[in-house]
Write a structure and sequence with these properties.
By secondary structure, the protein is mostly helical. The chain has a domain at 75-124. It has seven helices and no strands. The chain has helices at 9-13, 16-20, 24-41, 44-47, 62-98, 102-107, 112-124. The longest helix is centred in the middle third of the chain and has 37 residues, at 62-98. 3% of the residues are buried.
């Protein structure tokens, strides 16, 4: 029985069979080119869709008025949410240090009421 000899990629490409077969990439390129040719021959009427441009007046549009009213109603709530998010991101570690224990709070000059308020805030914003 003859030993099996691995064939390298270079040997496979240089074989006569490989030279007779065009690469798959060529077929893919031809398919894409023929698709473009078919689309181009469909005509300019099919390629162009004309929509009328309608300007909307902000003062008379009910949708715009509804959105402006909702924005005005929620303005205070959104401001409070932004402030709370800012406090959580930037002051949580600081508050944890300040109110870590009564000795640190007293040394830093915090009143017991402030330390209690910080502890309450930390519990609410875990």
């Amino acid at each position: 029985m003859a030993p099996i000899v691995p064939v390298s990629d270079d040997d496979a490409r240089s074989s006569p069979e490989a030279k007779r077969r065009p690469p798959a990439l060529l077929f893919a390129g031809l398919a894409v080119a023929s698709s473009f040719a078919l689309l181009a021959s469909a005509g300019p009427a099919m390629a162009r869709l004309e929509l009328p441009n309608k300007e909307v007046d902000n003062d008379t549009s009910p949708l715009v008025q509804k959105l402006l009213q909702r924005t005005a109603e929620n303005k205070d709530r959104y401001a409070k949410e932004r402030l709370q998010d800012y406090y959580k991101r930037n002051f949580k570690e600081y508050f944890e240090f300040e109110a870590s224990n009564a000795k640190v709070a007293k040394a830093r000059g915090l009143s017991p009421e402030s330390a209690a308020a910080i502890q309450k805030w930390l519990e609410e914003n875990k």
